[in-house]
User: Fold these one by one.
Assistant:
Number 1:
Amino acid sequence: MSSYIKRPNRALQLYAVLFLIVLYVPVLFIPLFSFNDSIYVRFPLQGFTLQWYGELWTREPVWNALWNSVKVGLVVSVISTVLGVMAARAITRTRMRGKGALVTFIMMPLVIPGIIFGVALLVLLSRMGVPLSLYTVGLGHLIICLPFAVATLLPRFEGFDPSMEEASADLGENGWWTFWRVTFPMVLPGIVASLLLTFTISFDEFIMAFFLTGTDPTLPMYIWGQLRFPKEFPSVLAMAALILFVSFALVFVAQWIGRKGLEDQE
Amino acid sequence: MAETSLPKSRTADRPPRASGSRILRLFQRSESARGYLMMGPTLAIMTFGIVVPFVILLVISLWTRQGFGFDTTLTLNNYIRSWNEPIYGTLMLRSFWMSGVATVATVLLCYPMAYFVAFHVHRNKMLWIILMTLPFWTSYLLRVFAWKVILGYEGVINSGLMSAGLIEAPLSFLLYSPTAVIITLAHAWAAFAILPLYVSLEKIDRSLLEAATDLGDGPMARFFRVTLPLSMPGVIAASFLIFIPTTGDYITPALLGGPDGAMIGNLIQLQFGAVNNWPMGATLSIVLMFWIAALALVFLLVTRKVQGRIT
Amino acid sequence: MTPSDRFISIRNVSKRFGAFTAIEEVSMDIAQGEFFSLLGASGCGKTTLLRMLAGFESTSNGEIFIDDQPMSDVPPHHRPVNMVFQSYAIFPHLNVRDNIAYGLRKQKLTAARRAEMVEEMLDLIKLPGYGSRKANELSGGQRQRIALARALILRPKVLLLDEPLGALDKQLREQMQLELRALQRQVGITFVFVTHDQEEALTLSDRIAVMSGGKVLQVDTPAGLYEAPRTRAVASFIGNMNFFHGTVRRNGSAMAAIEAEGLGTIPMATAQLTKPDGAPVHIGLRPEKFSLSPTRPEAGLAVEGRLRTAAYMGERSQYYLSIPGKAEPVAVSAPNTDRRMGADDLPEGQALWLSWSPEAIVILDTD
């Protein structure tokens, strides 16, 4: 394309760099203070230490909370992605009456504050006599993750030539085999994106967890509890820093694999 | 005609099978039925998760607290109270104000960034997107806490400015104030602004910009007359994605709002916690939803009018 | 086994989408081994009809039979038909070999046998050795051939083609047309071909069904449609046609003639003309059936006209002349037998004589 429209703009470049700095600095404080030799999280820094990481190892409740969050996150991401695939396929491939209203209905959690869902579900569950637990948290997360899954998968299905599936049927494959051999490979990037997105949302979700947690806390709930105890706090920071490192690593590995895949194709 | 050179195939001569049962055939005939069946589980969950709780919420909002239980006579008392007693109205207005400012600030600040990646990054766009969204893989709570560190009495800004000799005493308005909440909200929700903005900017057909240039527009004019209007869907989406969830936020105000920076979310949360007045909490939730819907409608109408004027 | 004349039988088929009727009471029979085309403008229902043959749309009314078997409850993956899609629908995540062999999965063949079959197909479509190429490395024409191979390898009873040549440029398209025709003759399978390009349909088909607005206007051989169209609609859809109103003139049973606007009285053979004296009639004359000369021809029917415009088209020129008694100009098409640099040697207003023979006249149903 013409290079006139895309002339480099120094001001914008500077802005972009500044933006990234402002974006990352607060986040980088977390690993920064996890190495700080002081139980107080404030400046000036007191020296480098790994003791908080060491303490983390022995602190069982932290690992339990982490494991709880992972469990809930995995279940929620898988279920919401599977349902999202079915819903996206139904929306884009079949002529249903009232489709528009249906899609709006499913997307509603995106436009309603989480606190309202948390509150409403709490009321419902308490009237039904269901005790609060990780299951109730999972249910709450499922409700807010489903719209995200559908929103991620819908463009993938829409951008997908429907005659591919028809060709597969024409060549002898029934619905199930067509899905496996044609649809699934082609929407796979969307599926992966949906899994990642919904896992992330569930993993970090606090507002609904606050209302729906029973005796087993998720990680955000645990962190919230620890915010009032300065002694425990640095090891929580260590945990968060670890999570940050792991996510960075995962993302870069995924990028690298994705890049390799593209290169193989060329 | 000779049926020569095609490879022999075994299924060609078998008579075609009609598919199994009558019910199955009914599904094959009716696309609508198939579609709804596929969406079944999703619909069930969403109904259970959205419709049922809201109905119950509505019902409870009409009850009154009585000891540890409820007086189930239907009454609009809670709604009347929420209208009359000033604290509710004030908090709600303040919440909308703070969310609104945060939304505007976020969208304004993120727009140039999204523009940069859409128009000025030619390789590795994906990498930039990931770079911008990676911070949000950390715990929301901890990011809020990080801002507490920055804005605090002995935090980064104050100690930095003091050691540079620019101020003598720490600035107190930075923390435990509405300003702190707004800054933190803007930072925390930036990703939700960047992605929709980027997507809508990326979609703009570059040849439209070339046409505008050809017809005499300089870069500024081109931006306001072509790029901005065409990116409006992204702006609207971003605004909604930030405004709506933040009105109900209570973590940020709780951690750094102080008494002046409290939001309606805090009050609702209290109703279900310490105050233990569930009916009132339900009422406030419904009133909040109502006002959000009203504001959203007004916003959409206004933007449609503005778009009509521009184009 | 003698090839059946009603290998595909479409009987009173209608298709409605909500309030919109896409196909109304369509019936036709397609013979085994025939190259049959569905021709019509966009929206006439031809693609919908094709998709009903494939099984992707159900019929609202009527029945479809293939090889004497009713198809209404048979889903697409069980039908003995295969389709070449307009977009080719080549699977991007599979290479050429896996694309072609896609439908063979259910046949429990050994890998060696499958590879052998794929190689045979690649030879047939003249792309030998392309097996390991990726789908996105192929040009449009190559993809089209892969789509063909993928369908033909399953040896269907009927091959359906949905405007397969539409995306190709003119020269490639003409080459593919010839190849397609030769292929069909070679494999002997019934082809049902959908197109909006009448030249294509006329070149390729044994018979053509002309469709418009969800109905079939006429089913006939190419020559039949071109030289003997039954209605004005068909006549104007295929090729160009000059239309003339006229009145029948009879004198007893011996003589019959048509008084046509601008052309005078034309004697016709009585076998052709069954209407009574004084009845209105429409006739048509194709542009190439006229001859032009500067002076009146010695014998035969002729009329003098004035040249309005001329268009130079390479192998022929198209002339528009106005004749007294007729409002619209008459189109005349003549081959450029001399080398001429443009049509400037015939100035506007030039008087020319048009002549034609009565056998070239087509009598159209008044509709």
Note: The two ends of chain C are 42 Å apart (CA to CA).
Number 2:
Amino acid sequence: MEGQFLDYLFNPQSIALVGASGKEGKLGYFYLKNLLEYKGKVYPVNPNEEEVLGVKCYKSVSAIGAPVDLVVVVVASKLVLDVVRECAATGVKVVLVTTAGFSEAGPDGKALEEEMLKIARNAKMRIVGPNCFGIRNCNAQLNATFSFEASKEPGTISFLTQSGGGGEVIYIQGKDEGLKFSKFMVCGNKSDLDDYEVIDYFGDDPETKIICLFLESIKEGRKFFESTKKVTAKKPVVVCKVGRTEGAARAASSHTAAIAGNFTAYETAFKQAGLITTRNAQEMLDVIKAVDWQPLPQGPKLGIITASGGLGVELTDLSEEAGLSVIELEQHIQDRIKPLIPDFACAKNPVDMTPIWGQFSDVMKKTIEAFYDSANVDIIVPIIVLRATRMIDVLESVRDAILSCQANSKVKKPTYICWVSLKDSLKNKEIFEKAKIPCFEWTGRVARTASLVYGYSQYLQKLRGE
Amino acid sequence: MRGEERARRIFSTAREEKRSYVLEYEVKEILKGYDIDVTKEVVCKTADEAAQVAKNIGFPIVLKIVSTEVVHKSDSGGVKLGIKSEEELKTEFDKMLALYNGKFSADALKGISVQEMVSGEEVIIGVLKDSQFGHMMMVGMGGVFVEVFKDVAYRLAPITEAEAMEMLKELKGFRLLDGYRGRKPANVKSLCETLSRVSTALEELPEIKEMDLNPVFVNDKRAVIADGRIFI
């Protein structure tokens, strides 16, 4: 089993921390404090300490005298090789090297990294990193990073990131917005790890329902392509590949090379493998919310209800530009909506309520129900702005209408709120988000997210021959 | 001879001659080995020989310079289209020969290619070998569509005929192939076959780094490659 070492990484029976420290402020202190939360055995290792944070400390990995699955290394780069050698000799399965100063730092570091790999390969031991911030398994209270942002709640989103800092920001921000993570992995220098191995592992992992990737480079692109292609048939894979515009221009001798930019091959591979390609972290989080919380859209047709005609038109434009459509509702559906709104208001789609705040609850509820009965609506977007964002009873009634329609209908229509509010009512978004109805600020994010998610849905439909 | 064998022989000749590119007539030789339709051509040394060949192929005729020193033929006056008679052919042949004679060694000047002239919608088929993902294929509507509008679609190889069809449908200019404004619908199926056969060739020929098949003419009867370059 090729991915088995990742199981040792995410579900180790025992972990040793080399460089453990009881001194607050030291990296070895933060890692230890986090690791001590883990349900498995944790052995601090430091030749100069008898005890750290109230736990017996060992002089070396071999002094532990019991099998160790995962060793986390937090010592200076000049000491790493000795530790790795010892790990290899004692039958450790995986070594996570957090230390920087390897291939990313120049030729000397590269030589050091190669030497480390040689030792590991001879012992059939695997290296994660070096230059790696760490990993988490939120479903097992494993936090092998120096950040205290552990996840107490179990989750189903697994995340592979090359950048430690960038990945951590996405993870914390996502968590703050209510996303629940399963596995989090920083791959650092990827010296002994190919991206596809992680994809395969997450793909087979029953605790992973959504995979997200934040990558600067991809190793073994062809295998990455084959693996993701297999996995996207089962679960969504959302990718953000940064470093798309770097100037490293290919020597363009042919016409074809001159037309295709640097990112074209990536873009082509992503699309062909059914990945959801996002341009930045914010888009990635929006898409994750949409696929995690809502059903996939079965078609491209938006049903929009708004109190602001202008924003309704803006959303229509952006949606159509993004490949979606906003088409007129059937007459019998319009006939159900018309009596609810003033004579001069529009029931065609977008349904423009006009500012009749007192009736918002009733109009929105009944319009959402009507959207459910319309063959011209696949995706429902209520636009909720300003004054309405302060009207708790309206928000709750819209939420309840959405939930009851989704619960009672055979076809589940994804619903995204387009939200624009002042600071004072921003947190009212949670009325929806706690019920797993995503709120996206401004029309652009709604259109973009809906279009990306619909793209994936279309890919699956094609795969199933629909 | 199978395409793979032909290609290997041509690639090794190119390497011996210290070329990283494969000449048009060689490209066509390779493609024929994969049952890909290319314009008929014979490389001739003299105007009389050319006249004989033209009689067999039938007018109108195209002349193209064949030299290991010339990669961009039309830029240097090495392409003459639409020759309608034997007389015109002989004049143009000698003119072109004079243009290049003495410019480079007799070894480098292989002759002038006498080719059948085809009409139809212009399409470009391209290939690029990416260091990460391997061969990537491109198809686009030719001429200004590709130059100005970059109206192209990409897929990683290998592709099936059905995938080739999807690529074509992604093109804004697809309507031109599909009977736009009373044009005769082009033989799109034949173009899809060509694309999938190019894909087969790529599977056997990993040494191909870049390839332009440009133009490819698609008319109501067939898709035919009128010019091509390969970089190895």
Note: Chain B touches chain A through 26 residues (CB under 8 Å).
